[in-house]
């Protein structure tokens, strides 16, 4: 019965692929009209740049708003002028001056330097409870203001020189400040509009609803049907409106990867957000022009609870980290062209090569485990891998389990918890080994390294190393970028020696893309400035 | 009858209050919070957010406040979806589910009941075997198999219907067929069973012996009683079908209520969970009341008491 069904399904699929293009499909009509239809994961939790934290939100907000600096269409580091026409910094990168261009909000208001000061003050207003507020701590005095040590915003290093000039003083030398500015937590909001709908500290402000939204980006909201579609159209008041090629973008919140694939093949999407891992080999063969596998600035790793024996012993942790075949795992399990993580900070950051400290070496793994008192895995206490409920994570955990068993002779179990429970367990250190991942906020090693300092809210391993903390602190005030990267390199080496984490693989973005889409280039943070994107009718 | 309805209505209110209280304390006791995320939130920021939504108060106090609000028809804000209230969310998605649900139910009844009657009347002929084995297959084939199968055949192979979305009449066909066929199968089997039971009664034999035409026996004497099992199932089916089917909504990207049940629970969106629970419970209470009334109307042996 099952076989029969598979045969029918396979036959149907073959026919389905063959019959594509028989009649005009929604994607063909949209392509002719210059409208891009893209899968966007899930319904955005909101479109207020100061309150959201997710990827689907980011993808829509970056069409609606523009910061001082924008993402460059091809280069991950190059600053693309946004609201700032030009900028300069002093010699040690602590004081930055931005010269704003003549730009307008979608309601016709001019965009002024004061709008940025207002927006950053809003971000740092304690009552707003903005989760990304710590991103702004790079600005002098921002942390004190945010922690209510003062309510005088003039103590924060944001100075409006005049309507077109904004001066920002930072806590320390930060040459990569321009990269941070690309993040939506630095995006402006229109103060007049925010004040009209409840003011700075109102979390439930309705300024960012469909009816009230005012942006300064290349697109404006045209339609928002919950759980269905968000459509944007070109913003006529955008300063660079002539560059914008698309006539619209439709963001579809499709959570289910199978549905998304059906929609792509059925002519209802030009681009998917993701792909089911099991289907990747099929797509490689059948749809090589559509399947895209691109590097992505993220690391998949396991956290190890260093407060629990036997994991308090660094030898045990190292044995775990080097005794499974990462290459085999990415080839046979994840299948999405991921790179085996021999270090923690992913590849692709210019000037910072990846570490190769954690290589597959089962021989040495066995030896370390024996030194730790568990020769051949004998006497190793029963430990468990915590995963959040997901088929993909389970498969990876099962592969790790099997390889550890084979190479070290130890038995680990797997147990899953639903997402929110898993988050609780992880932050309460209520686990042995926990599946984890981290995606960079900006292109710099510090977005990965900083989180493992002692007591950092994202550390979640119980690991504390004063030398590591010192290196990270020194890196924050380093005089040159070379020196900073050197210090971060040292810190990463320390992390990879102590190994409170087991690096598994470096992420890739895997998705399906209609070959008609132009100007959509591989980007480390998956940020694609829409104004350069276009779509061919043919 | 008025007394019966009033009494059942008051009973319903009590049931709803009970369900509300149980759900509230269960949700409050569940680990995880609507505000937790993969990126740790600083304790100070978390405290601000919690204070905004009233989470800084003890559970019992929150219960009283939220109960008061609900009695005034205010289900509160969504704790996860900024600047949207639970009422907004329900107002947006309920009509979609209502439309999908009523069309699916119509399909289910129009296919299921005639098939069931036919099968019972033509017992042990191909007119019985074919619809009943189809129905059995329909019950066994869950919507998550049926849905993609229909999408594959009609959306991709013949490309006559859109595979997903909810933009016009043609988008309603596949999801309502998936949901409708599933329930049609149930109704067919229940109707067949009910009809057979009636047709085997002694008085039917008597009627036949007296020469009452078969048509009169089936349509006039047996149909009412034969439908009772189907009607009983109609109550929960109606509530379930109207409040949305998560699976069908996910497969076909239908922006209905079902998705919110799951999102609410996964996000720990307490207010949304409570609002939806109250809505779903009210629907069930209401549907069951209607079913009870219908049953008495169909079965003279039952009385209001």
Automatic annotation (TrEMBL), chain B:
Q: Which residues form the ABC transmembrane type-1 domain?
A: 94-291
Segments crossing the lipid bilayer:
12-29, 103-121, 133-160, 166-188, 227-251, 271-291
Coiled-coil stretches noted in the UniProt entry, renumbered to this chain: none
Family stated for the protein in its record = Belongs to the binding-protein-dependent transport system permease family.
Instruction: Give the highest taxon in the source lineage.
Output: Bacteria
Query: Which UniProt key words apply to this protein?
Result: Cell membrane, Membrane, Transmembrane, Transmembrane helix, Transport
Q: What is the recorded membrane topology of this protein?
A: Multi-pass membrane protein
Q: Indicate the principal place this protein occupies in or around the cell.
A: membrane
Q: InterPro entries annotated for this entry?
A: BPD_transp_1_N, MetI-like, MetI-like_sf
Report the locations given in the UniProt record. Cell membrane
Name the record gives this protein: Peptide ABC transporter permease
The protein's organism comes out as Croceicoccus pelagius
Q: Which GO terms describe its biological process?
A: transmembrane transport
One cellular component term from this protein's GO annotations in UniProt: plasma membrane
